[in-house]
Structures are given as structure tokens and as C-alpha cells.
Amino acid sequence: MKRKAKNEGYISARESHRISRENRRVTSAMERARERRNVPPQEYASQMKNPDSIVEFDDLHTYFFTDIGTVKAVDGVSFSIPRGKTVGVVGESGCGKSVTSLSLMQLVQRPQGQIVSGAIRFDSEDGVVDIAKMPTEAMRRIRGKQISMVFQEPMTSLNPVFRIGMQVDEVIALHNHALSAEAVKQRTVEMLEMVGIANSQGVYRMYPHELSGGMRQRVMIAMALALSPRLIIADEPTTALDVTIQAQILDLLRHLKDQINSSIMLITHDLGVIAEMADYVVVMYSGRVVEKGTVHDVFKNPSHPYTIGLLNSKPALNREVSRLYSIPGKVPNPINMPDYCYFRDRCEMKTDQCICQYPPEYWISDTHTVNCYRYAPAGREDEPHA
Amino acid sequence: MKRYILKRMLLSIIILFFVAMLIFGIMRVIPTSFVEKKAMERAQMPGSRSYTEWIRILNEQFGMSGNVITGFFNWLGKVIQGDFGDSWKFTIPVTRKFAQVIWDSFWLGFITMILRVIIGIPLGILSARKQYSKTDYAVTVFALIGISLPTFFFATLLKLLFSVQLGWLDLFGKVGRDYLTLGTWGQALDVAKHYIMPVLTLTIVSVGDLMRYTRTNMLEVLNSDFIRTARAKGLPERTVIYRHAFRNTLIPVVTLLGYTLPSLFGGAMITETLFQIPGIGYTSYQAMLEGDIPFTMFYLMFMAVLTLLGTLLADILYAVVDPRVRIE
After folding, report:
1. Which of A273, A350, B88, B146 has the most C-beta neighbours closer than 10 Å?
2. What is chain A's percent helix, strand, coil content, to nearest 5?
3. Does A86 have pLDDT greater than 80?
4. Domain-embedded: residue B89
5. Does B225 touch chain A (CB under 8 A)?
6. CB of B130 within 8 Å of any CB in chain A?
7. What is the structure's pLDDT at A7?
8. Cβ of B229 and A220 within 8 Å?
């Protein structure tokens, strides 16, 4: 018994071998489907549930098939991004917010990471498509042009051996074959100026290592906005930057978004950034959405115990505390998830209902939903809202 | 840049001086003495002088009478004037013997290096792109077999296959028996044919490390953030791999190739011996066995110069492929 406890979390070599063989079987079938060429567009065409949305995640499951078991990084995420709005996705590290956005770009680390089921409906220029079903070949035409991404690490996200100009030119030229080299360069310089780089001609000829982190992030933003995409995914765009630069970068994103009229999916664990930037908030925990609503809903009336804990652990200037609040316990092991509420073991507000299966989505108001039994309408506990 | 190269050159001269001193010292103290052997031979002839007398005479003759230090500076003095002396074993000027044998080794090394690059790098990239796939395992096993098994094993296998079983190629030698009757073109073809097995042997044993090296570096690059950025731009996979990733993989690989410059001229002793190709590896081995100081000194100094040039070349190439490196 004692030995068993000690070995918890470890698996035998044979078991690992069996898992990895099984994984290879599963992932290579998915890879083959993904790598098909000349797939008719009807196969991945789709229909939006709400015509005002630009993106709808519908019960998305993205798993990582690792040698020690399947990690359900995203396990049934549904939310939508309205046209022209900013949606903030918050949650602690490892809760699946980045994987959700990478799924949208089909950039999850392959072959281990795979979109297993669910749909990601995107209102593209050529009609609504389901990105979860799209082959890589077709996805390529959406990446960079219709959905673009600003990454977390500006220091390493630019290729160190190519000049800034070339790297921005590349994305413009790629999606505009008709443009001459001169016109491409002009557009690049224009973009560099737009993101507030004063010496745009000089920076055009520089290498990434000659720029500071803030400057590099501006270049990344210039690259992301160069083609006026319909959606910009900003994956913790300011985490690696110092606070003064953070504010500038966020301002920049907000202004540019209004200029080109696109939507932003803003991923962060900084609640301050969300409060300032977002129109809607999605709170994620362990690969699932636990609460979503407008900024006003979530900040004024946080309902899920996790959201409440999250807001409490935010340092505030006008409150005097001897020790900053932190949510007790730790995130459950992503390989063997329990089939009850993932937050139950850390929850300070758990009730008798919490022993049953994972809670469904309950509507608190027209815009605000939460997955917690505390909001189950009295009398019909197990009936989720349609 | 010019200043840097000049500085490195000056530094190289100092290094070469100490290298020469060290090698000379070692050559003088190793138990294989050319003079002693010669004296022994002469003394055994009927009616000859005694062994000790021969030693004295021969020491005088070969300039070995002084101590190591004076011997070294005598050698150095002549070398500075461009005189490397006569080889004791081959009894012709060292440089002439060297010129006779170096080209065979050079061509062997050069062709091997080209094959190594055009096989090793693409296979390394392929294997990194399909990590843990059947292709990856096949390439890795092939590479490891090449790295771990010795030259003579492959040489023998190749001989068994191509000479004994199939009878396509000669077992050994640089030219065939009817070499002299062939025209210029025919002679070249004949030599080329004799080069096939040595080159194959050398390639098999050396391609593995470059392939593994490329694979490791490619894997590292493929997992970096800027590759994800390149994919997020919508670039085709081909461009992502061969433009964005490859340029970065090239940085360490180019350095590795810079360091292999000496091996181009270094000769391959075992392979040359097995196939009886009179290259520098084989010749210098013979010279060392006999304690031929002038030839060994020349050969080892030549290698030292190449090694220093190779490192300098690697450093310059490093700055060429990686803009973050600036040579000052």
C-alpha cells in the first residue's frame, strides 16, 4: 500500500509503450485526414448559430496524446466572439486558454496535440467554415490573412536571422501576389509607422536582436495587422513586457482594432488588462469554461467560486491586507480528470450537490452564464439550459 | 573584420610555435629512433664499425647530436627559410613526398565531405520533421550503425559484395592493371572506379554524426517560437522548413563543417591502408613508425595550420550565417 502511494503518478515502461503505440495509431489517422489535399470546401463549410459572431467555439476538445496518457487540455469549450468586440479569456497557467487559441489557428503542437471533436466556426471571407474540420492546406489561407496572432514572447517570436523588413514583407507578399516588391515594402514601412516605430526605414533593415522587447512586440503587431485580419488573437501580448510598455501596447492594440474594425481574442491572466480592454470575459479552469459574460457581469457579479477567488487574489491599492489571497489547493492532474466539478476539491463554497457530475451551464442573466450548482434553479437541478 | 583576421593570424603563429615545440619534443623522446635502428643495421654488417660508433656518426649526419632544444631551433631556423629537409625514410625532400601523396587523400576527403553534406543534412531534416516516425527510426538506426561500426568492417563488407561476389570493382589499389594502356579519359575513369569503395566506406562512417547533429538542431529550431510565428503567417510548410528553420539550423552545422577542414587533408589511415591507396594517412603512418622526424614534423605542422585555419573559418562562417554574431 505504501509502495503504491509512492508510485502514484508513475507508470511502468510497458504501460507507457502501450500508450504511445495507441497514441501513434490515433494521431497518425488524424494527421492523414489533416494533410489531405484538394478537399472540397463543402466538407468543412458550416453555418453560424449567431450571425453576429465572428468565431464560435462549440464544445471544442483538444487533447494531447502524451506517453503518460491523454491530456485533455481543452475539454468542451464553447463561447463565441462577436464581430468587432474584444473577448478576454482568463485563467491560470495551464488552464487551456492558449491551446484554445492555437486550436483556432490549427497551430497546436502536432502530432501529439489534436482537435478531437467539436467545432470552431469562423466567418471567413469565403463563407462560414469549420476550422476543426479544415485540412492544413485550406487553413493556411486563413492564417495571417483573416486570423492573425500576436504571441506572448516577443523576444523569441521573430526569426533571428532575417531582417525585420523581410519578415513583415513576407506576410504581405504571401497573401497579395499581385503587389510589387516596392508596394510591399511601402506597406511594411507604413505598418511600422502605424504601430509607433519612429525610425521605420531604419528598423526595416534591422535584425530582431537590435530591437528591444517592446519594439519587437510592435513589429509582431504590425505583422499581425498588416492584412487587416477579421480576428486578432493576442496571446498574453504584454506578459513579457514591463508595465509602462504594457500600457502602450494595449493602447495600440485597442486603437488599431478600431481602425481596421476587427475582433480581438485577448488571452491573459492579468485581470487588470481584461477590465481595461475586453467587452466580454470567458473564465477558464482546467480546460473548461467556468463562467462567461460581459466585463460588467463578471467583475461586478463574479459567480463561480473560482472567479471569485481569482478576483480576490488580485492586489488592490485601496485595500490593506497582510497577505495576498490565494486559492487553496492545486490544479487537478490533467491526465485523470475527475468526473465531478474540477474545482470542487479547492472550492470553499461547495454544497451537497457538488458530488454529482460536472455542473452544466446555468444562466444568471441574458449575457452571464456559470457552471456551478450554486446557481441551479431550485427544483430542477439537473436540467441544463438549452 | 580585417583586423580580427590579422589578430587571429598573429595568435596562430604563437600557437604554432608551441605546437611545433611540443611535437618536436615528443618525437625526440619516443622510443622509436630512426638513428638507433639504422645504427643497429649498419653495425650488424660484416667488418663494420661498432654500434656506438655508428650512433655517433649517424647522429652527426642527421643533426641529432645536440640536445632537444638546439635540435628544435635548428629545425625551426631551416623551416623559416622554407626548408623542411629531406625525409629520412623516403630519402627525398619532405615537400616533394607530400606533394606526391596528398592529392589522393584530398580527393577522397573532398568527395566524402560532399556526399556527407548532401546525404547527412537532408536526412537529418527529414528525420526531424518526422520525429519518432518509422522514417526517423530507420534513419537513426542507419546513422548509428555507421557511427558505431569500424571502418575495416565496412571496407571488408564492401569488398565482399562488390569485388568477391559481384566482381565489379578491384579489391584494392588506386589504378587497374591495364591503367597505362588507357587514354587520359580512361585513366581518370579507372581511378574514379577505384575510389568508389574507399569513398563509400568513409561516407558511411562519417555521415551519421552530421545527420544526428542536423536532426538535433532542426528539432530544436522547429520547436522555437519563430517557427510558430512563421506558420501563423500562413506560410507553406516548405517555406517554413527550408527558409525559416533551415537558416537557423545552418548556424551550428556550418561551424561543424568549418572544423572538418583538417580532415580533408588529414587522410584516412585505415581506409587508405585497407584499399592500398598511397595517401597522406598511409604515408605519415609509415613515417611515424620509422621515427622519421622531418616528415612527421611537416605533416603534423600542416595539420596544426589547417586546424587553426578551420577554427578561424568556422568563426567567420558563424558571423556570416548568424547576424547576431559580429566579429570585432
Report:
1. A273
2. 40, 20, 40
3. yes
4. no
5. yes
6. no
7. 57
8. yes
The pTM of the full predicted model, rounded to 2 decimals, is 0.81
d(CA B83, CA B297): 12
What mean pLDDT do residues B308-328 have? 83
| Statement: residue A4 has pLDDT above 70 | no
| Confidence band, pLDDT 50/70/90 cuts, at residue A59 | very high
Q: Does A160 touch chain B (CB under 8 A)?
A: yes
Nearest Cα to A211, choosing from A192, A226, A184? A192
Q: Which domain holds residue B206?
A: 94-321
Residue B21 within a domain: no
User: Does B82 map to a domain?
Assistant: no
Task: Tell me how far apart the alpha carbons of residues B235 and B212 are, in angstroms, rounded to a whole number.
Answer: 27
Q: Total structural domains in chain B?
A: 1
CB–CB of A141 and B247 under 8 A? no
CB-based contact, B323 to chain A, within 8 Å: yes
Least confident range of A91-95, A190-194, A295-299: A91-95
Q: What are phi and psi of A239, to 5 degrees?
A: -60, -40
Q: Which of B226, B237, B241, B250 to mutate to test the interface with A (most CBs of A within 10 A)?
A: B226
Instruction: For residue A224, give the chain B residue with the closest CA.
Output: B233
A236-283 pLDDT, tens digit per residue, is: 888 877 888 888 888 888 888 888 888 999 998 888 888 888 999 999
- Mean pLDDT over the full length of chain B: 85
Instruction: Give the CATH number, domain containing residue B297.
Output: 1.10.3720.10
From residue A151, alpha-carbon distances to A63, A132, A238, B221, B284 in Å are 21, 21, 9, 17, 58
Taking an 8 Å cut-off on Cβ atoms, the answer to whether A143 and B233 are in contact is yes
- For residue B312, the surrounding DSSP H or E stretch is helix B293-321
Distance CA A163, CA A201 (A): 12
Run of H or E including A59:
strand A53-66
